[in-house]
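@channel anyone free to eyeball this complex?
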Amino acid sequence: MQTLTPVQELKSAIRDVPDFPKKGVIFKDITPLLSDGRLFNDAVGLLSRPYTASHVHKVVAVEARGFIFGAAIAARLEAGFIPVRKKGKLPHTRIKESYELEYGVDQLEIHQDAIVKGERVLLVDDLLATGGTCDAVIKLIRRLGGEIVGCTFLIELTFLNGRKRLKDYPVTSLITY
Amino acid sequence: MQTLTPVQELKSAIRDVPDFPKKGVIFKDITPLLSDGRLFNDAVGLLSRPYTASHVHKVVAVEARGFIFGAAIAARLEAGFIPVRKKGKLPHTRIKESYELEYGVDQLEIHQDAIVKGERVLLVDDLLATGGTCDAVIKLIRRLGGEIVGCTFLIELTFLNGRKRLKDYPVTSLITY
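replying in thread with the prediction:
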């Protein structure tokens, strides 16, 4: 009888959805993992663990799915939570960076007072694909003077080489494809 | 010398932004509260506390801001997290409900397998205003057979009487205006 490791168990709860959001794409649906209280809690613990001694001041995550692990990890580490949002959603003074979409560009924004110079910042997202979004978020964090202690992802699609774009920072991921 | 209660301290970290998202509206900006690790952690603790003995199976929250407290509370309660999203964002089989906007209607969706009949569900959001969104989410939860153990909000705008629309369920809020 084989026993799954905690990470294998998490991976087994991720569902492939073919042709979403468009024909030919296989979407990695994490909602079955999220909806299981024990697995969600395990994932938050495993993602937080490498950073428990890193004195993280702020966890930064991008709407909407990024908020899920971002906020849970921030609370676990007793760090502040900083939302990065799409254009026009944040109410106060903000700075922005462009990032590439498949067709065209879009913009991500962060509040100017979200990070104080020298604060230690952890970037959290559910998925590392090409790294384009993360690259824009890193620029935002650095423009505010934040020190990036790491980037952590539930899933990493290694064949897309996103890690290469983030090579100046420690990158951790739980589940790889 | 006066000492603030924990709730007063949270309230003092909420920022009024005039004329957002449009002229004449004063927006309650919670990002200064979120960005302070101690305050964010306190808020998650205070919002979770009434439900620690409620055997919550699933926490349901609406994108995007609802995910922040929803996910952190789910992890705190060791419950599953269920995202409710706008039209077309969830990849698998879903059901939907319409809700009223100021002009026109929009739709919210939940995965059909997100809740199993009889599961105990806590609804979390950052703001209770008119209750229109919550009302739609409650319908989604009930259609899947979920039993709603409560609705909890960081902020309640009492003058909008949202609580009246949720009168069949326990409602808790931390900060009222």
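from a first look: Residues 37-48 of chain A form the longest helix (12 residues).
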